[in-house]
Amino acid sequence: MIYLTRREHFNGAHRLFNKDWSAEKNAEVFGKCANANWHGHNFDLYVTVKGNPDPETGFVMNAHQLSHLLKKEVVARLDHKNYNIDVPELQGVIPTIENVVQVIWKWVSPHLNGCELYCIKLVETENIYVEYYGD
Amino acid sequence: MIYLTRREHFNGAHRLFNKDWSAEKNAEVFGKCANANWHGHNFDLYVTVKGNPDPETGFVMNAHQLSHLLKKEVVARLDHKNYNIDVPELQGVIPTIENVVQVIWKWVSPHLNGCELYCIKLVETENIYVEYYGD
Amino acid sequence: MIYLTRREHFNGAHRLFNKDWSAEKNAEVFGKCANANWHGHNFDLYVTVKGNPDPETGFVMNAHQLSHLLKKEVVARLDHKNYNIDVPELQGVIPTIENVVQVIWKWVSPHLNGCELYCIKLVETENIYVEYYGD
Amino acid sequence: MIYLTRREHFNGAHRLFNKDWSAEKNAEVFGKCANANWHGHNFDLYVTVKGNPDPETGFVMNAHQLSHLLKKEVVARLDHKNYNIDVPELQGVIPTIENVVQVIWKWVSPHLNGCELYCIKLVETENIYVEYYGD
Amino acid sequence: MIYLTRREHFNGAHRLFNKDWSAEKNAEVFGKCANANWHGHNFDLYVTVKGNPDPETGFVMNAHQLSHLLKKEVVARLDHKNYNIDVPELQGVIPTIENVVQVIWKWVSPHLNGCELYCIKLVETENIYVEYYGD
Amino acid sequence: MIYLTRREHFNGAHRLFNKDWSAEKNAEVFGKCANANWHGHNFDLYVTVKGNPDPETGFVMNAHQLSHLLKKEVVARLDHKNYNIDVPELQGVIPTIENVVQVIWKWVSPHLNGCELYCIKLVETENIYVEYYGD
């Protein structure tokens, strides 16, 4: 069993706030991340699949096809977008990386053949990232 | 003469568009960067000062004081902000890194004593950055 | 279950030597790391917690609170210190990153609520790091 | 139990193609990687061993000895080599990183004493890497 | 005047040897880099242009157009190629990064309008790079 | 004219304090960097030479010989050392990177033939570095 990881990039805007809370409570919990006029990040996405290399290609999965899949299913939906407004699957949740990474899992996992989605890692800054293993 | 560089971080949202142009022309020139609902970046700021080390301290400038100055004059104004809306000095210009870096120069240069501002470098993504030397 | 990681920095001095050994044996085993006048490193600390995101915040844990906790419990004790002299919890052991990481675990783990400490990673140079999962 | 990781570098040339396929099918599957005149990469190798620190040294394994072992068993065989031609253990397989990493495991694992080989990670570009845990 | 830098990647194979020298002298001067069966690298290319931002766009040059130009004029010629064989402009010279960077300058400089080529930086490994300013 | 840069590493301990000052004034100016029991860093050294490539080798200077020179003249003197105690050329000055980089220049510049020393860059943390051009 080999684990293959592919990195992609995208950037976007978001705002962390709970609409059921007062402005004061949002500021207290989310600090500057609650800024009404948004802020944003460059995100690094690492997607890991696992499987046995195909004897004919030596590949767990063709990394260029994995890249193509991620650009189509993830980057096209999240790059240069506002995660509070522009992404239907993120409506009704606070667009933290904890919640975004679970949506990315749902977009990617149905499209893999011959290998299995193992981990999605989403890096928000050089100091903060999350990992999700699907459950 | 020694050149001392200090790095700081901030992140923000912006939108690249020219209000005198049609939506079509904005999309043609700025592509996804013209998204009406904003996008954002993590920015790395590198500020270089030049001078002769003080014999009593060995410092061109105390790097912690330089950091303090940059946090007060730059990070406080740009971190978790929308550069089209929240920053008075950026009103009336398109908030590209070319224009942001010139504003940062104006904020920092009056506050240096015993050394001189030499260069401001602003990194928007791992693939794009600008440098400005003050003229 | 989501895994959230926060990075912090500190630097310090140490010396690797076993007081029960001769200078020759220390030099043979630890090489330049046994230098009597110390040497030092920039350390990168990655702390990973795991839990379910809180529906009201979208957070496994507020990353700014995690940073505050790490600065108080770890960075304040290890930054700009000598690990052979200045850190009571490291007396009586050789201050390798293998031993330092176990002490960091003890400092951090009692202070987490609503999520669980999963991994502490300590990077000594770009070529060497350790990871500890608590047992 | 502590996990210790050591990084090493090497670079080499390879070509991805299946000798039982037509040039057309090789181009279709492997794209530019099938270029008849080779291409190459800088590879970063991360080797992780696990064990309990020796009370006399504080080490899971002496990182300099691990480096020496990796330079002798891996770097000497792969650095500045052509993986389709110069490496006997890679003859008969397509030299993808999936296949190279399994050969590295066989070279390293017999030489560890007092700790156990846990993972080998091989990074081909900043966007692609594989990990192997030995089965 | 603002300096704008764009990064691109490519990888390739090469061999450093002087055809007028004996195998012994080539090995003495170029070491492992003279390996007859080639070796290769991931190359990072940084291209810096200088100019005054256009008031209508805020750009010295549209970074996406600069990327497109570099992909067409440089990456298409050097990515997944053998620099001793596949690149007509490198025939008759030893394909060191010192020589490659001068060829890249010739490919890029005729295609800039409204700004000027300032520097080309080519990174061969994390430890070695060259810069060329056009004369 | 081509500029060639080579990176090397070393680590060491130091303490920033002025022996003519009180403990209070040292703490006020140097903060934690004045800790009596030392602290330390991983240092990255970038040395840039300039010259015309030799037509017979394609090299401004053989990067492996430059590495060998730097290991002999710089790394051997600074790696795993205490810069307040172990380095004769640093006695009588405060061992800031501003002062260390000037000493490195004196060690390296006499040993170059066929090219010229252009810049020495010394990186103390990911946030602080200095550059020196020899005057």
Structural features, described:
The structure is a homohexamer of 135-residue chains. Chain A is of the alpha+beta class. Chain A has a single domain (2-132), classed as 6-pyruvoyl tetrahydropterin synthase/QueD (Tetrahydropterin Synthase, Chain A, 2-Layer Sandwich), CATH 3.30.479. Chain A is 27% helix and 32% strand. In chain A, strands 3-1-2-4-5 form a five-stranded mixed β-sheet. In chain A, a hairpin with a 2-residue loop joins strand 4 and strand 5 (128-132). The longest helix of chain A is centred in the middle third of the chain and has 16 residues, at 63-78. Chains in contact: A-B, A-C, A-D, B-E, B-F, C-D, C-F, D-E, E-F. Chain A binds chain B through residues 9, 11-14, 32-33, 35, 37-42, 79-82, 85-86, 125-126, and chain B through 9, 11-14, 32-33, 35, 37-42, 79-82, 85-86, 125-126.
Reported CATH architecture of chain A: 2-Layer Sandwich
CATH superfamily heading of chain A: 6-pyruvoyl tetrahydropterin synthase/QueD
What count of helical segments of chain A does DSSP give?
3
Please compute the radius of gyration of chain A using only Cα atoms. 17 Å
